[in-house]
Structure formats: structure tokens, C-alpha cells
Automatic annotation (TrEMBL):
MF terms in GO: fructose 1,6-bisphosphate 1-phosphatase activity
Upper lineage: Eukaryota, Viridiplantae, Chlorophyta, core chlorophytes, Trebouxiophyceae
This protein's UniProt keywords: Carbohydrate metabolism, Hydrolase
Reaction catalysed by this enzyme: beta-D-fructose 1,6-bisphosphate + H2O = beta-D-fructose 6-phosphate + phosphate
Record's keyword annotation contains Hydrolase: yes
Name of this protein: fructose-bisphosphatase
Enzyme Commission number(s) of this protein: 3.1.3.11
Amino acid sequence: MQAHALRNEGTELHTPLKGSTLAAVLAEQLSTGSSEGRREDLLFIFAALQTAVKKIAHLLSRAGIEDLFGEATAAAGSAERDKAKKLDVVANEVLKLALEGTGRVSLMASEEDDEPVSVQSACDRDGSSYVAVFDPLDGSRNIDASIPTGTIFGLYPAATRGDPTDALQRGTQQIAAAYALYSSATMLVVSWGSGVHGFTLDTTLGEFVLTHPHIRIPQRGALMLCLNLSFIYSVNDARYFDWPEGLRRYIDDIRQGKGQNPKQYSARYICSLVADFHRTLLYGGVAMNPRSHLRLVYEANPLGFLAEQAGGRASDGKRRILDIQPEKLHQRLPLFLGSPDDIAELETYEDVQQIHNPGYTV
């Protein structure tokens, strides 16, 4: 496969040719610096992830036809989590079956399961095993309106095979992360620790092909609209009067061009975490939810890993996301993702976390 060297923060990376398949790019990226066993394991795991994402994308495209809209009959989960949609349950099973079939994943932790699930076949095998954490269908409350949704995925080494506490590793321990975006095109955006690559599903081939090599988030967010430079932020402005003072001041300042950047910021909000983050990754700015709403283990950590690999930052408003030690599987926290200069500026306002819930449903 043709490639050329790209020097990125002192590390020589190889940018593969656009149109290369995900498997080919993964094999080339891991050709140096990884053991043969690790390389083979990741090839198996990401082949399974691709298969699951294709299946979920197909199901989403036919959800209305096959009566997959609405909540599941017996909604899974506890009071700490959202009620499951029919497609939440189906997507969860698709991912679990695909990953179990690799024989490499000994523990799976999902948004749809109360506890991590041990995979005995992987626990018994020789060689390395891994912990997969995922939100099978992020933004599922938007399914019925055909608004973009996504799948979020993180991968860790397994310290003790099948031990549920292995799902509670810091984000810094991740060896790979990815998200799928189900929209006008189905994309799979991945990192194996050496940058971020975006792949688009070519439905004529049935393959994910490289369309966005080495994604780098802008130092400060900007979107070109009709030749006018527009800086963007993404948050639910309807909650403005419930926000803490620091967050209100930050939003007021950047909207009026009174922040560190003299340009005025505009709001762009989809209310689908993967979609809002994907736009932010490409155009820069900040995607945020100041409430203790998003889950550390299988939402914030994988997206935080991807943000940092693309040169951005991930914060809870006070500290780096990837440094936080999870205490429980479904632990929630505020989440701010985006351009490094924008996140750094936001943190100077200090009081940006909406810890108090005024009474509306999370």
C-alpha cells in the first residue's frame, strides 16, 4: 500500500492512500511498534466491529419498515440509565455477538447492560485478551425522527480475564477507540494510538474505505460558511438559565466576540453526541454537555481518546477526562470536547459544571 511519511508532534506517522480499506490501513499502521500477536488481535476485533456497524446501519435504514421504532417492550436498564429503544437492544446484541466471535474479547461492558459481561471462550484462550466498552446506539432517542445516531467503542487490555473491575480502567489505558456515525453516509472514525482516521462505508463494495486520513482538529474552532468565518459551539442553549454563572459568562463572551477570540461564535446543536462531536472534530470549536449526564466509561473515555489523538482536548470542565478513575460502570459526568484553545479558555471560567439538576429528566 502506498504511503508517505507525516511528521506529527515529533512522531513519524504514515498517511495511507485514500481509498484504502480499514483492514489495510490497520495492518500498515501496526506494522511497526506492535507485536505480531497484538496486530492480529486488533485485526480480528476491528473486522468484527466493522461487521457489527454495517449490520446496525442496515437495521437503521429499515427501522420504520421493520417496526423497530419506539421503546423496547421490556426496557433494559436501571433508573440511572435511559429507557432502551428497540434498536438499542438489537444493536447491543449485534455488537456482543460480533465481538464474542473474535475469541479475543474476554469482557464486554455496554450501556445496555447493568454489569460487564464475561466471555468464557476468550478467558480460556492462550494469548492476550481485551476489554471492549461501548454505547451500541448513542442518540437513540432521535431514531424515530431519523436524526443521525452513532456507536461509541473503546478497547483496553485485560489485566485479569473476565474480571468486571477491568471495565473500570482510566481512559489513558485505552489502546484503541472508535465511533460510527449513521447519517447521510455511514462513517467509522478510529484511532489505534497513532492519530485518527475516518473511513466511509462504500455500499457498492461493502467496505469501509479511507476518506479522512489523519484528522486534526483545528487549534480553535472555525467553520467556513459562504466565505464568512464562523466559530462554533454545540450545547443545549435552552438550559441557559439553569447553568452555573461561569458557563453563562463563557457562552455570553464567545457569542459576543468578547472572549480570547475576537470573533463571534454561533451555535450548532444536533442533540446526538456522536454527530455533534464528529462535526467538532472536523471543524473545531466545543461540543459540550455541562450536566452530569454522559457516561465516563463508554462515552467520554473513547471520545476523549479520539479527541486527544486528533490534537484536541477532553475535559469535565476542571480536569482531563482520561485521567479520571471510574468508580462504577454507568458513572456520569459533564463533558467538554473540542479544540485545545477553546477548551483551555472554557476552563478558565471555572464554574462551568451544572451539578445541580433543577428537576428535568436527564
